[in-house]
Design brief:
By secondary structure, this protein is of the alpha/beta class. The protein is built from 19 helices and 14 strands. Helix 3 runs parallel beside helix 4, helix 17 packs across helix 18 and helix 18 packs across helix 19.
């Protein structure tokens, strides 16, 4: 391995300040997976000195764990590593939503290895020895590609005029009252806060508020605040002026401006950091804001709808959420009940979703299947029920969905209603259900998470929490 002439991987003084201040104080996040300790340390120190945020691991299993629990922009993967090799890590991580760009490095590079890496989705391939300057340039270009892909995804999925389903199927009297309230407040420009567990339909309520307002012809722009790194959130919401930081070569419009004349839906608003909370409060109060690096005030007419699965009042007490922002977004509050409290809706929703996925077939649920659905506690709420019925529609034979077609665990699917002595706790039900879904999907965590109605990272945490062990021979 060689270093650039006149530079040292050990000396931060060799790095100009302008290149260390990536993205106005937000460094590019890099994971290094290198089992050669000395080489990994030199590479880590060099990239850190150049302004990158670097984490290093020594084997493929640790690399997978880091990539599934933290957000990285670029990963440098050595091919030959203990536990899991670099190509296998690459294959598995490409199944994740918006994975990092991957640069594969090997000490005995061959054409076959390079082709295999590129086919698996690697950004590029390097053989040892390599120049440090070459690594730095590759990481920066890989980061630029990832930012472009993320921007394209946001523009394609968030700026929507044609809405997905905005219907709410229910016979549950308290929820019927909530829907009546939604109809009355939809025309108001006031902010709305929607509370409820994950999967209860907060996004559907947000869309109903939009379509029932005078803004229905305007854009509906949604942002999951838990899915964006804190360091990127201000730019995501308010945009960036050209020249705001090295690499900002053109003005970028934020979601607040994209939602002008319409509705901005902030899901998981409790995940915003305090700095962004302050800027959001000012924008709500004045209808104006400044883009990052900008001096010109931007005026917008936007209605903000926020939602949270967390108790924001407790967060205020803990000092992690602004009291004044809570009062501002809590002008009107809607609370959605979990599915386990509206058991009367379970058969109704199940048949509704079954019809959605049946195509031209006529499908029906047996009494045993309905009983199993009613007894289950639904930790993933309506989203989980929808996923269960999608699977049931695929497995049904002769137009009939049996209890055995439902991935709810053996005890829940039994014919007789359990007695009080055998009732399982919610945690036990969740544990058994997750284990069953993992088994049914052959431990494919992406498909299992989708079926459960949770994110892959949440599933990964649950696997560790419950101490599940992957059967030998299954995918990592």
């Amino acid at each position: 391995m060689t270093l650039p002439s006149g530079s040292s991987a050990m000396s931060p003084m060799a790095t100009p300040a302008s290149t260390r201040a990536i993205e106005s104080g937000t460094p590019i996040r890099v994971l290094i997976a290198e089992d050669e300790t000395h080489l990994g340390t030199i590479l880590e120190q060099f990239l850190t000195a150049r302004g990158f945020s670097v984490r290093i691991v020594r084997d493929g299993r640790a690399a997978l764990e880091q990539l599934r629990t933290e957000n990285f922009d670029v990963a440098l993967l050595d091919v030959v590593m203990p536990e899991v090799d670099g190509l296998e890590v690459l294959r598995l991580i490409r199944e994740e939503p918006l994975p990092p760009e991957v640069i594969v490095i090997t000490g005995n590079g061959t054409i076959e290895t390079a082709i295999a890496a590129l086919k698996l989705g690697a950004y590029d391939f390097l053989s040892k020895p390599y120049r440090m300057a070459e690594i730095e340039a590759l990481v920066r270009r890989a980061w630029e590609k990832r930012m472009l892909a993320r921007d394209n995804m946001h523009m394609a999925s968030r700026l929507q005029r044609a809405m997905p389903s905005t219907s709410f199927v229910t016979h549950f009297a308290p929820l019927v009252a909530v829907l009546s309230m939604v109809e009355k407040i939809a025309p108001s420009p006031s902010p709305v806060l929607i509370s409820g567990e994950s999967g209860t339909g907060k996004d559907v309520i947000a869309r109903l508020l939009h379509t029932g307002s005078a803004r229905a012809e305007g854009p509906f722009v949604d942002l999951n605040c838990a899915a964006i790194a804190e360091s990127l959130m201000e730019r995501e919401l308010f945009g960036v002026e050209k020249g705001a930081f090295p690499g900002a070569e053109q003005r970028r419009i934020g979601l607040f401006e994209l939602a002008a004349g319409g509705t901005l839906y902030l899901d998981n608003v409790g995940d915003l950091d305090l700095k962004v909370q302050g800027k959001l409060l000012r924008a709500l109060e004045s209808g104006t804001f400044y883009r990052v690096g900008g001096a010109q005030k931007v005026e917008v007419d936007v209605r903000v709808v926020a939602s949270s699965t967390r108790d924001l009042s407790r967060m205020v007490q803990a000092g992690t959420f602004r009291d004044d922002l809570l009062h501002r977004i809590n002008t009107i509050r809607i609370v959605l009940p979990p599915l386990r409290e509206r058991a009367v809706d379970v058969p109704l929703l199940a048949q509704h979703f079954l019809g959605t996925f049946a195509n031209t077939r006529a499908l029906r649920l047996t009494d045993e299947a309905i009983g199993a659905l009613e007894r289950y506690r639904w930790p993933g709420n309506v989203r989980e029920l929808r996923n269960v019925m999608e699977r049931a529609a695929l497995l049904a034979t002769n137009g009939v969905v049996e209890a055995t077609d439902l991935p709810l665990g053996a005890d829940v699917g039994a014919g007789a209603r359990p007695t009080s002595a055998s009732v399982l706790s919610l945690g036990e039900l969740e544990q058994r259900h997750i284990a069953d879904v993992l088994e049914r999907t052959n431990w494919h965590q992406g498909r299992a998470a989708e079926m459960l109605g949770i994110s892959p990272k949440t599933l990964y945490r649950k696997i560790r929490e419950y101490g599940f062990k992957r059967p030998s021979g299954r995918n990592a």
